[in-house]
Amino acid sequence: MADILFHLFAFLTIGSSVAVVYNHNAVNSALAFLVGLIGVSGLFVLLDSFLLAVLMVLVYAGAVVALFLFIIMLLDMQGGERKPFSKATAVAALIGAALLTVCTMTLIRKFGGLETAEMGSILPVGANLKHYADLLFTTYLLPVQVVGFLLLIAMLGVIVLSKKFAGLEDVK
Predict the structure, then answer these.
(1) Is the domain defined by 2-79+140-171 classed in CATH 1.20.120.1200?
(2) Helix, strand, coil proportions of the chain in percent (round to 5)?
(3) What is the phi/psi pair of residue 115, to 5°?
(4) Most trustworthy range by pLDDT among 8-12, 87-91, 142-146
(5) Which of 29, 103, 127, 143 could form a disulfide bond with 23, CB atoms 3.0-4.6 angstroms apart?
(6) Nearest-angstrom CA–CA distance, 45 and 138
(7) 40 CB contacts (<8 Å, ≥6 apart)?
(8) Running DSSP on this structure, what letter comes out for residue 118?
């Protein structure tokens, strides 16, 4: 049963990721992104990492996708024809994918896949909440705060850009 669920969630995640890239409507892309995040959350459940699954749904699917939809609707983006990829863009994408694959494989070989740099040992399946909390409030506190401020700045920028100022026509 676990194999069937894995293939279902993997197909759901990959299919929705392709839909995000190839969809011409920004709202539909954001909704496909939501489905992809739910697929990833299902994969976390299969790995017995229930905390990450719940956080994926609450934080990413709940907050980030809602923020994306808010920004899209404020900007009033219309879907349209996209320019086809040039050969230089396709070559750059292939080089980037190759570099990402090589770097990922190097890290997996170097750290053994499941080892962490902080602990030096293999984490148990379904690692506990205390370990995540310790890392979040010590090691990764600054990056979390920076990401929060970046999201706030992005949202404020969209609000300012979408604001219709009355009387600007008189200035000209």
Answers:
(1) yes
(2) 75, 0, 25
(3) -80, 150
(4) 8-12
(5) 29
(6) 26
(7) 9, 13, 56
(8) T
In whole angstroms, what is the distance from residue 102 CA to residue 26 CA?
Answer: 32
Kindly list the domain boundaries of the chain, sorted by start residue: 2-79+140-171, 86-123
Beta-carbon contacts of 154 under 8 Å, excluding residues fewer than 6 positions away, are 67, 71
**DSSP H helical ranges for 23-140:** 26-46, 50-55, 65-75, 87-111, 129-137
For 45, other C-beta atoms within 10 Å of its C-beta total 15
* Token pair in block for residue 92: 């750059």
How does pLDDT run across 17-33, given as a tens digit for each residue?
Answer: 999 988 888 888 888 99
